Amino acid sequence: MSSNGNFTPPKTVVLVGLMGAGKTCIGKKLAQALRLPFVDADVEIEKAAGCTISEIFEEHGEVYFRDRERLVIQRLLEGPVQILSTGGGAFMDELTRNTITEKGISLWLRADLDILVERTSRRNHRPLLRNGNHREILSRLIEERYPIYEQADIITESEEGSADLTTRNALQGLHDFCQAS
Ligand code: S3P
Q1: Closest Cα partner for 150 from 92, 103, 98?
Q2: Is 105 in contact with 83 (CB distance < 8 Å)?
Q3: I want to staple 111 with a disulfide (CB 3.0 to 4.6 A). Which of 7, 21, 69, 133 is the partner?
Q4: Atom 13 (ligand 1): residue with closest C-alpha?
């Protein structure tokens, strides 16, 4: 098989999906299973900017943030094969999406609205969720973004309550994709 992670993907695996889908958690588990480094694009954007994502949004706005995000993801995709978690809006940016499609393997972690609402309610650090009802905002983002996320190379359901099961499914999807391409 291979859901034990006994293979190496030929390109960096890029996790995409909405806030609360579990990209960081599953990304770290995938990295461990595949013995690859894990990197989080949002953390790298913060390091490069010397401030938090919320501060970037507040001081410079979303367009500026997307520009930084695009550059950081381009840079990370020039590096060695790794597991890369991206912020929920990254794959929505056409240029970023094209870079991911060309240089990486995209894996969409798909989650239902209830799961996203529950998971995002635990913390309040996300600028897009600050001013309004999480359920309404996430439901609108699902409508806007899911048709685009569907273009990902691999789609894995983010299972409620079992990160290990989701990781196994992601590994299987990744393995099958790599065999077929
Ligand atoms: C965003 C998601 C966030 C972060 C920023 C914008 C989005 O990342 O990049 O707040 O547009 O969905 P997570 O998806 O990791 O929370």
Answers
A1: 92
A2: no
A3: 21
A4: 87
**21 CB near ligand 1 (under 6 Å):** no
> Ligand 1 mean position to 8 CA, how many Å?
28
Phi then psi dihedrals of residue 154, to 5 deg: -130, 140
Q: Distance from the CA of 23 to the center of ligand 1, in angstroms?
A: 11
List, for residues 132-151, the tens digit of each pLDDT value: 899 999 999 999 999 999 99
Q: Which domain holds residue 70?
A: 12-180
User: With 90 as the cut, is the pLDDT of residue 161 above it?
Assistant: no
Any domain includes 5? no
Q: What percent of the chain has pLDDT over 70?
A: 98
Q: Is the CB of 17 under 6 A from ligand 1?
A: no
- Give the H/E segment covering residue 30: helix 23-34
Protein residue with its CA nearest to atom 8 in ligand 1 = 87
Q: Tell me: the pLDDT tens digits for 23-61?
A: 999 999 999 999 999 999 999 999 999 999 999 999 999
Q: Which of 16, 3, 8 is nearest to 96 (CA)?
A: 16
Q: Which of 14, 19, 120 has most ligand 1 atoms within 8 Å of its beta carbon, as the pocket-test mutant?
A: 19
